[in-house]
Write a structure and sequence with these properties.
It is built from 8 helices and 13 strands. By secondary structure, the chain is of the alpha/beta class. The strands form 3 sheets. It has a 7-stranded mixed beta sheet, with helices on both faces. Strands 11-10-9-12 form a 4-stranded parallel beta sheet. Helix 6 links the parallel strand 9 and strand 10. The relative contact order is 0.16.
């Protein structure tokens, strides 16, 4: 059974314009304490800086235009039925304790979380569980797999990385639904980025092409530009190891034209 609780402490977003981002509670908080009391709060998890960065983008958009409706709308999900029964109140109180801008809380089980994602018109699903992210991607919900590296990312700027090796592929095959979802999200993200100047932006878009030469990187740049996405930084690795540059970039998650993940 799915239960949805609206957070009355935050401004509710325009359902027609908002970019809905769903994050699992286990990525945001350390929810391991089964015997926690209802008046306790959880420790912060790997995705806490990511939520703060999303909130920073919203704050800056509203500073520029108080009537802005193109905002991130964050929904916090639980996908564990045991966690739903034991810790729903603690998740809500922890969110308020840390001042995280979460519009809704959705408490579901493993069998019905996909129904809830679709019902909430989720455009990006973030989880630390690969099975959940893959299920969402297969149903046409753009998904990103987070890991502990996300915890070291900056909270004052949202850093989104694109995998240039995949974004210019033809929209065919079994992943075409998730690819279209990625393209739709990219268009909205690009529109957000255009709200800010070239410098001092709370949103930075990065392109990394791991294989091929300048032609591959140039093709990926042209593809993103055709979707309205302006790239702030571009790197062509030409087969060089990815680890050093990925550690330096500190992106919150990676996007391609299908399944998304943080880079190993």
């Amino acid at each position: 059974m799915v239960s949805t609780v609206q957070n009355t402490d935050v401004r509710q977003k325009d359902a027609e314009r908002a970019v809905v981002v769903a994050v699992t509670a286990s990525a945001v908080f350390e929810c391991a304490a089964d015997d926690a009391d209802d008046d306790e709060v959880y420790g912060v998890g790997a995705a806490s800086p990511l939520l703060q960065a999303l909130q920073r983008v919203n704050d800056r958009l509203l500073e520029k235009n108080p009537a802005e409706s193109l905002l991130f709308d964050v929904v916090l999900f639980t996908t564990n039925s045991q966690q739903q029964q034991q810790s729903s109140r603690i998740i809500i109180s922890s969110t308020r304790h840390y001042g995280l801008e979460v519009s809704r809380f959705c408490f579901s089980g493993e069998d019905d979380f996909m129904e809830s994602l679709l019902k909430n018109n989720v455009q990006l699903f973030l989880s630390t569980e690969s099975n959940e992210a893959l299920q969402a991607s297969q149903r046409g919900v753009l998904s990103a797999l987070l890991d502990q590296q996300t915890s070291s990312c900056p909270s004052e700027q949202l850093r989104v990385l694109y995998c240039g090796d995949t974004i210019s592929q033809t929209d065919t095959g079994p992943t075409s639904v998730s690819r279209r979802a990625a393209q739709g999200f990219s268009a909205r993200l690009g529109e957000m980025r255009r709200r800010f100047d070239l410098f001092d932006s709370p949103l930075s878009i990065i392109l990394v092409t791991s294989h091929g030469g300048r032609e591959s990187c140039g093709g990926a740049l042209r593809t993103l530009r055709s979707r309205g996405v302006r790239v702030d930084e571009a790197y062509c690795l030409a087969g060089a190891p990815q680890g050093p540059i990925m550690s330096m970039l500190q992106s919150h998650f990676m996007l391609n034209d299908g399944f998304c993940q943080t880079e190993e």
